Amino acid sequence: MPIRVAVVTGSNKGIGLATVRALCKQFEGDVYLTARNVGRGEAAVKALNSEGLKPLFHQLDIDDLNSIKTAAEFFKQKYGGVDVLINNAAIAFKVADTTPFGIQAEVTLKTNFFSTRNMWTVFNEIIKPGGRVVNVSSMNCVSGLKKCNLDLQQRFRNENITEEELVELMQRFVDEAKKGEHKERGWPDGAYTVSKIGLTVLSVIHARRLSKERPNDGILLNACCPGWVRTDMAGPTAPKSPDEGAVTPVYLALLPSGAKEPHGMYLSDKEVQPW
Predict the structure, then answer these.
(1) Residue of 32, 192, 251, 266 marked active site
(2) Which domains, ranges and CATH numbers included, belong to the chain?
């Protein structure tokens, strides 16, 4: 039997690291901690080693298409593909950050939406039958969607929205943010929020495509909210620990063989949420 493999992006700290920790305990196969910075990634592996866990490491910077392709080729050659992919890597500017909002929008959407999309474009070809794909979204996407104008809400909720239409909307937000026009054009005032709306809708689109193009492969793809978690991103006052934040991503990663659902859904606390 080939060795099964799970890959978690952006996993040298926070929810990603907690997800690797849980998978090392629960997943039958090799678990890869990935990070763009080799030193930080290897230090995180050593920290888990001290807990008696044995994750492996591979460098992966999702903002670098060549890095994505190199990683995918490695997993294809060594394992014949990937069984579990958790797209966790993301960034967020602090509320007090004085970087111009247009730049915040461009930088945030590049990583959280466009680069995560690149991950799927490259990795979807090597997801094995029975694979599980988890896109770590945010509670902000639901509240943020309600702050969009009605036209945007309808477009994001349209079951037939295409990937091209979604990409166009995300780029439109960046362009309008750079001009300082995003609020008057009906967008919420938060780049992180918009990026996670985009990621959640992208998950629906990719799940729909999987059902059409690989109907017999039993691959399940979902988005989830880990909750408000104590991380560098969310701050020290959040109610959940990183290990608690990892519960839903890990639940989706370990959906049993033969399961038909959830697929193309958005979950929080292991429950499908209305979108």
Answers:
(1) 192
(2) 5-272 (3.40.50.720)
